[in-house]
Specification:
This protein has one domain (2-80): ADP-ribosylation fold, CATH 3.20.170.20. It has 81 residues and is α+β, with helices and mostly antiparallel strands. The longest helix has 11 residues, at 36-46. The chain starts with a strand and ends with a strand. The protein has helices at 8-17, 23-28, 36-46, and strands at residues 2-7, 31-32, 53-58, 67-68, 79-80. The strands form 2 sheets. A 3-stranded antiparallel β-sheet has the order 2-5-4. The chain has a two-stranded antiparallel ribbon with strand order 1-3. It has 3 helices and 5 strands, in the order E-H-H-E-H-E-E-E.
């Protein structure tokens, strides 16, 4: 499993639309995801003080195209292309 943090309103919109697309997909070409071990640090670094967040649990075997891992750098998370 991999994990993605999103705002509840974004997830509710995705449910209504039948498709989820993070803002980073349009801006950077991928959706930021984390391992279980990284998720708390990501939340603290990028979402501190925000409320109404969800942690999406993603079965990476169901992704198309395949998951692509990058070594985390300061301020970066693993992602899929």
């Amino acid at each position: 499993m991999i994990y993605h943090i999103c705002e509840r309103t974004a997830w509710q919109a995705a449910l209504a639309a039948g498709r989820y697309s993070a803002a980073s997909l349009a801006a950077e070409g991928f959706i930021h995801c984390s391992t279980r071990e990284q998720a708390l640090a990501v939340a603290e670094a990028f979402y501190r003080g925000k409320e109404d967040l969800l942690l999406l649990c993603i079965d990476e075997s169901r992704l198309l195209p395949p998951l692509r891992w990058e070594a985390p750098a300061q301020g970066r998370r693993g992602h899929r292309n």
